[in-house]
Every structure is written in structure tokens, then in C-alpha cells.
Design a protein that fits this description.
CATH topology of chain B: Glycosyltransferase
Helix content of chain B: 55-70%
Largest sheet of chain B: none
Radius of gyration of chain B: 19 Å
Shape of chain A: globular
Largest sheet of chain A: none
Order of helices and strands of chain A: HHHHHHHHHHHH
Protein name (chain B): DUF6895 domain-containing protein
Number of helices of chain A: 12
Order of helices and strands of chain B: HHHHHHHHHHHHHH
Number of domains of chain A: 2
Radius of gyration of chain A: 16 Å
Number of domains of chain B: 1
Distance between the termini of chain A: 27 Å
Structural class of chain B: mainly alpha
Organism (chain B): Streptomyces natalensis ATCC 27448
Number of strands of chain A: 0
Number of strands of chain B: 0
Structural class of chain A: mainly alpha
Number of helices of chain B: 14
InterPro entries (chain B): DUF6895
Oligomer: heterodimer
């Protein structure tokens, strides 16, 4: 289910396939769909952020509301879980109809880890939050990560060397959003390399397509 | 990584333990009677050549007198094994077009240990056009050029031009580095800086590149427990202008060192009941660890803010000055 949804998102971001409709891929009242939405987070709405946006419909709104109601982060939720949930809330505010007042408030998400994590751990967490690397989303997190651009770039190198394509793609997508990526990293070639080496992994394809579509990086 | 020299006590203990093990391993470095004929040079000449190269460096640079003395004794032992250079004359007569006898001899020649017949033979063979054909890769060409410089021969190619074509000179994407390329990059630095003697030859462009990516490479090969490459990467770190030090990496390398001082090349130490096997599995990484520890102990302090050395702005061409033992 996640792979199918990711394939649909990647196609939409590349401008291919049928016009994107979240509710056609992830259905209301279906626990598996809601679980997939929880994992994909803001990426489920990413195609609606394109300039020539496909307008979201009422069914999209319903399925997102249902997922947000089903999986509110608990007191013991990991920071990645809280940020992922927050990303979906923020994306719903900006990309779905209904007005901000009708959506849950974004939960407070801690960012101390961005400053404190050793770079391998930082890069891993950032890759898990790659769905937040969308224009306008989580500006504070993006600013904090900017201060650690070199460390994220090192994480990209480590992930590629370990053939951890999903992590590499996620970190690479963040790097695509950040302003001062080291030129010697070769990010554009790196994103293309990761996409090709991943053997068609749909979630890798989403990250690479987002980096390309929203930030013009990769080929 | 942080600036500074790490934990000097830890570094000195590691170097001293390495040298202690290497000193006790002299019987394994000793050349067999067939060293110039049918013995496998990878098991005989290569270990001795590495011992000479790095023991000489440690004997020159290490700040602790006792450590320097052990290293100098090992270097003298290596020269003795070559029968005061006679070995090289035999090797050249046997393989006149090979470069390795000259590369090995260069380590001694730069210390003032020379052999008349070898010099005469090289005066002929080293200038042959056939010797200018690149061997293996551009990094190896740098080794040949350095040997020519050490011995005082005419350089067969331009060092800077060759360096520009190496794995470091091309500044490749840091994520393409495989194991072989990583060894190439470390040796590009060693040849350029003359094994850390002239660290200012690393131009800012390359120093910046290495400062950015060394932590990622170190982490990768620490995870793979490839200890000799870890040691080489730590040695490269010590060649950078502000000598970034990764105390955690040194701790992990220290954790791989056996109680007797040996550092295995990869993974855990081999079974101790096969002394020859232990020697081959450990001699290289043990030498490299002693070398890296010496460079780390003699690393340049980070410059005060705003006082970037003008000398460090550009790598000067490699000159041909003599290098005698102090």
C-alpha cells in the first residue's frame, strides 16, 4: 500500500500518470490506508503543492482528517513521529480546503536534536523527516538544519557508501532545499545515482522527484 | 571533528606499543636469501620498504626521544637488511625496467644512505623513455617522482600535473570513493606532503575538500573495521592545516590494538598461534598506526582566527631539496 501510494506520488511529482487524487489511492475507513498516510506524512499531499496544482477534493480532506484523528502523537511519541504528524498538519493547513481553524493545531515538536545529534544520527533522523522538505513547510526546522548542512552532506556520503538508498534520498532531498550545499558533494549526480541504484524503490523515487520538482536538484 | 591534537597520552602509548611490537617482529622483516630471486616481494621487500619509510619518518618527527630512538634503530635495521644497499643493485640488475627498487631505495637515499653501484645503475635506467610509461595509476607515478627527487634524478614528469590527475587532484564526488580509491587519496596526500613532512603543500582547495569529507569516510571504514585505512585517514587528518582531530575515531582504533601492540589490518586480531600469519595480518596497520599517531602528535595547531597563513593559500611546486636525517 505504501509503495503503491508512493508510486502515485512520484508519478504526480514528475508530471506523469493520471491527475493525482489522494483519496483514490488511500481510502477513507481503511486502516491500511490510514497507516500508509501516517508513514507518508506530508508527502501524501505533495502533488497538491505543484504550481499547476491538481485541486484536492472533499474526499481527500476526509481521509486526512481521519488519519490525523487516528494517530495523534502520544506523550511518549518519538520526535520523528511528532514531526511527521506536524508535517501532515502543516501541509493540510496550506494545501487542503477548510481553513486553518478546522484543522488540528500543529503539535510542538522539539528540535534540540538538530543541534545535539552526532552527524550520522542527525542525517538518519533528517532522512526520516524528508517529507517536511516541501516549500514553506517546517521553516524553523529547515533553518536549524541549514546550520548543519555539511554534516547532512556527510550523512549523504555515508548513506550512499552503505547503499542505504532511502536514507541517502531523504538526506539528499533536504540538501536540495538548503542553500549552501558543498559543491564538491555533487548533489545533482548523487540524487540521480541514488534513484538508479535503488532499483525502482518507490519511496526513493518520491524523494528524488521532490528534490527535482520543488528545488531543481538532480536529474 | 575538533581542532587540536587529541589525547597525547593515548597517541604516545599507541605509537610506543606499535613500535614495541614491530621491534619484536624483526625476524619477520628479515629478508630471506632468495629475496632478489624467487621470493614473493609482497612478503619480503614490501614489508621492509614500508618499515623503512615510516620508521624513518617517526625517527625524524616524533616528539619523544625514546620513541624516536626505537624508530631510528628499526630504520638502521632495515638498511642493514639491504646489505647497505647492495640489495638494490641486485634488484635493478634483475629487473632493470621495474620502478620498485628505485622507490624502495629512495626512502634510504633521502636519509643519506646511498650505494654507489645503485646510483650508477639508476643514472642509466631511470632516464629511459620506457620508464616514463605510467604504472598502475597516477598515484603510483607520484611515488616514482618522489623517489627520483629523493635520489636526485631528473623528474620524468611534472609532479603538479600528475597530482592534478589523481583521485584527490580531480576532487571526485565523495560518495564514489571505494576502498581502492580511498587508499589512492591517502597516498596522494602522503606523496604530496612527503609523508607529512611538508604539510603546507596541501593547497586550501584540497584541504577544504578533505576536511569536509574525511569524517564521512572515517565513519564508513570504522564501521567496516578496516583499521589500516582508518589509520591512513587519521594520518591525512593530521596533515590538514588546522589538523582536525576525531578523539572518538582514535579511541576506536585504540580498541582494535592488541595488548602486545599489534593492530590487525581488519576486524579482530588473528589467532596468535600462527606467528607468520599474525605478522602479515598486522605489520602494515601497525606501522600505519604508529605513523598516524606521530603525525597527529606533530600536527599544526589551529591558526588564530583571521591569521590564515599566506603560505597555505597555494601549494607550491615540489622542490628538489635534500632531506637529511637531523
Amino acid at each position: 500500500m505504501i509503495a503503491d501510494a508512493a508510486t502515485g506520488i512520484a508519478l504526480a511529482l514528475r508530471g506523469e500518470g493520471d491527475p493525482y487524487a489522494l483519496s483514490r489511492i488511500l481510502r477513507q475507513g481503511d486502516a491500511v490506508s490510514l497507516g500508509a498516510l501516517r508513514v507518508l506524512g506530508a508527502d501524501a499531499l505533495a502533488p497538491y503543492a505543484l504550481d499547476h496544482r491538481v485541486c484536492p477534493g472533499g474526499d481527500d480532506e476526509k481521509v486526512v482528517r481521519e488519519a490525523l484523528a487516528a494517530y495523534p502523537p502520544g506523550a511518549d511519541a518519538s520526535e520523528v513521529s511528532v514531526w511527521t504528524y506536524r508535517g501532515l498538519v502543516e501541509a493540510s493547513h496550506s494545501l487542503l480546503p477548510g481553513g486553518a481553524e478546522h484543522w488540528p493545531q500543529p503539535p510542538q515538536a522539539g528540535a534540540d536534536w538538530v543541534r545535539a545529534d552526532p552527524w550520522p544520527k542527525l542525517a538518519h533522523r533528517a532522512s526520516q523527516l524528508a517529507a517536511l522538505a516541501l516549500p514553506g513547510l517546517a521553516p524553523g526546522l529547515a533553518e536549524d538544519l541549514t546550520a548543519r548542512t555539511d554534516d547532512l552532506a556527510r550523512g549523504f556520503v555515508r548513506a550512499v557508501r552503505r547503499r542505504d538508498w532511502l536514507q541517502a534520498a531523504g538526506v539528499g532531498r533536504w540538501l536540495a532545499r538548503l542553500p549552501e550545499v558543498p559543491q564538491s558533494l555533487g548533489l545533482d549526480a548523487g540524487l540521480a545515482f541514488v534513484r538508479q541504484m535503488s532499483g525502482g524503490d518507490a519511496r526513493v523515487a518520491v524523494q528524488v522527484a521532490a528534490a527535482r520538482r520543488f528545488y531543481g536538484r538532480g536529474w | 571533528m575538533t581542532g587540536g591534537r587529541g589525547d597525547p597520552g593515548l597517541l604516545d602509548r599507541m605509537v610506543a606499543d606499535c613500535l614495541g611490537w614491530l621491534d619484536a617482529a624483526r625476524p619477520h622483516f628479515r629478508l630471506p636469501a632468495n629475496a632478489t630471486t624467487d621470493a614473493d616481494p609482497n612478503l619480503t621487500l614490501k614489508p621492509l620498504g614500508e618499515l623503512a619509510e615510516l620508521a624513518h619518518l617517526i625517527g625524524e618527527l616524533h616528539p619523544i626521544g625514546d620513541i624516536r630512538q626505537v624508530a631510528r634503530d628499526l630504520f638502521a635495521f632495515a638498511w642493514e637488511q639491504t646489505r647497505d644497499g647492495e640489495l638494490f643493485a641486485e634488484l635493478i640488475r634483475g629487473e632493470p625496467f621495474a620502478t620498485y627498487p628505485m622507490e624502495l631505495y629512495g626512502a634510504f637515499a633521502q636519509a643519506g644512505l646511498r650505494h654507489e653501484d645503485v646510483e650508477e645503475l639508476l643514472a642509466t635506467t631511470a632516464r629511459l623513455r620506457g620508464r616514463r610509461v605510467a604504472r598502475e595509476d597516477h598515484t603510483r607515478t607520484l611515488a616514482v617522482l618522489n623517489a627520483e627527487r629523493r635520489i636526485g634524478l631528473v623528474q620524468h614528469a611534472d609532479f603538479d600535473a600528475e597530482f592534478a590527475r589523481t583521485g584527490l587532484g580531480l576532487l571526485p564526488e565523495p560518495w564514489v570513493l571505494d576502498r581502492k580509491a580511498a587508499y589512492g587519496v591517502t597516498h596522494d596526500v602522503f606523496h604530496l606532503t612527503q609523508w607529512g613532512r611538508l604539510r603546507e603543500r596541501l593547497a586550501p582547495e584540497f584541504a577544504g575538500y578533505l576536511r569536509l569529507w574525511l569524517p564521512a569516510w572515517l565513519e564508513n571504514w570504522l564501521e567496516e573495521e578496516l583499521w589500516d585505512l582508518v589509520g591512513e585517514l587519521l594520518a591525512v587528518s593530521a596533515c590538514l592545516p588546522d589538523a582536525p582531530c576525531d578523539p572518538g575515531a582514535w579511541q576506536r582504533l585504540a580498541g582494535a590494538q592488541r595488548a602486545d601492540g599489534a593492530v590487525p589490518e581488519t576486524g579482530a586480531a588473528p589467532c596468535p598461534d600462527d606467528p607468520a600469519g599474525v605478522f602479515m595480518a598486522c605489520y602494515h596497520s601497525t606501522l600505519v598506526t604508529a605513523f598516524a599517531g606521530t603525525l597527529a602528535r606533530t600536527a599544526r595547531k589551529p591558526p588564530a582566527p583571521g591569521t590564515t597563513s599566506a603560505k597555505a593559500r597555494r601549494a607550491p611546486s615540489v622542490r628538489c631539496e635534500s632531506e637529511a636525517l637531523p
